[in-house]
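[audit] Reproducing an earlier prediction to check determinism. Same input, same settings, fresh worker. If the tokens differ from the archived copy the diff job will pick it up downstream; this log only records the rerun itself.
[audit] input (205 residues):
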Amino acid sequence: MDKPIIKNLGLQPYLPIYDNMHHFTLTRNADTLDEIWLVEHPAVFTQGKVGKPEHLLHQTPIPVVQTDRGGQITYHAPGQQIMYILLDLKRLKIGIRDTVSFLEYSVITTLEHYGIAAKTKADAPGVYVNNQKICSLGLHIHRGCTLHGLALNVDMDLTPFNDINPCGYAGLQMTQLKNYVTTINRDEVRQILTESFVGQLPLNS
């Protein structure tokens, strides 16, 4: 089975990428190669499909976009590395739980490279460092194919997270790679993250 095509899309507005993800998924067939999109977004709050509006604590100039991913409200901005995974899970013969674990482990592996000990929480998907959240996850499944993915805080302004209950958890503190590493090579972060994720996929089965 072929490896996913990896696309580094740079800084892109949220909605066009959201629409493109859905178009890709709706028009793909059994032979379409999987893709991984690496992207950053201008400042935006995104709300999960079962997201509760009260988790937006304050009205701000930052737009709020309703999405079909799982989870509650989160924040995206430049300096946050997003990895969208467009995978045919049926073809790969893996489940959603496996996929979430692969995503989480790819972040843990990336942080280990920089000497940062990170872990997951059974009741709260994502990756945490010293009980502060450094990476959020959210997926949507359509006909056995995944949309959305993860958002890893690398070097961004975390202040707008104070305007929400991140991922629906009141008082949850957010952190980022910059708080632990003096020099960050963004290309290196992307490479480690994607290679770790792709390396877990059962491509030879």
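[audit] rerun output stored. Observation attached for the diff report: The first strand starts at residue 5 and ends at 11.
[audit] end
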